[in-house]
Write a structure and sequence with these properties.
The chain is α+β, with helices and mostly antiparallel strands. It is built from five helices and seven strands. A seven-stranded mixed beta sheet has the order 1-2-3-4-5-6-7. α2 crosses α3. The radius of gyration is 17 Å and the shape is globular. Its EC number is 2.3.-.-. Keywords: Acyltransferase, Transferase.
Length: 191
């Protein structure tokens, strides 16, 4: 596989280049990080980060189930429809991590325009298949979204994370995210 370096992407961890003629990023190094050596965590040898496609819907559906089994009521067909609508009608960026022709993770960023702050990207969804966690997939996904946000003039990224997701919090803090506040979330659904 041949790749070419793209200016501005060198800062991405283990970034090797983009596939010619595509927006897919390739990470192609097999490395054990010193901090993970005692855990036996190996980074995946070849991971492609690319924009989501409608055809990814079965993988996204399964990832959603892996993250939260209660999401089963949101069917594969509804996931496919939602992906198609987001691609067609929004400025959101959904990136997937693909390994051996399988989507093993995704991150969904949405422009967040406020009347009291500079423009941000809000992470609406971020999940990595359980058996691939702690192998650099999440780091590569969030680094790719950060690069996209910066390249598109956003001032930063915000996200909400459940208090129980301690491993995710460590990833965010390691990448320079700062815990700002605890809050309660409210929702109202319409019949």
């Amino acid at each position: 596989m041949s790749v070419t370096a793209v200016p501005g992407c060198e800062a991405l961890t283990h970034f090797q280049g983009r596939l010619p003629g595509t927006s897919a990023c390739v990470y192609n190094k097999f490395q054990v990080h010193q901090s993970n050596r005692e855990l036996g965590c190996l980074y995946i040898k070849e991971l492609i980060i690319r924009k989501i496609r409608a055809a990814d819907y079965p993988h996204i559906y399964l990832l959603n189930q892996d993250f939260n089994p209660r999401l089963a009521s949101f069917s594969e067909d509804r996931v496919k429809e939602r992906i198609e609508r987001i691609i067609r009608s929004t400025n959101d960026m959904i990136l997937v991590g693909e390994y051996n022709n399988e989507v093993i993770g995704y991150i969904h960023g949405s422009p967040h325009e406020l009347l009291f702050s500079d423009s941000l990207v809000n992470i609406l969804g971020f999940v990595v298949k359980e058996k691939y966690r702690k192998r650099g997939v999440g780091t590569k996904l969030i680094a790719s979204l950060e690069a996209w946000a910066k390249d598109n003039g956003f001032s930063g990224i915000k996200l909400l994370s459940h208090p129980s997701r301690i491993h995710a919090h460590r990833l965010y803090e390691h990448r320079g995210y700062i815990f700002t506040k605890e809050q309660k979330n409210f929702i109202k659904t319409f019949d």
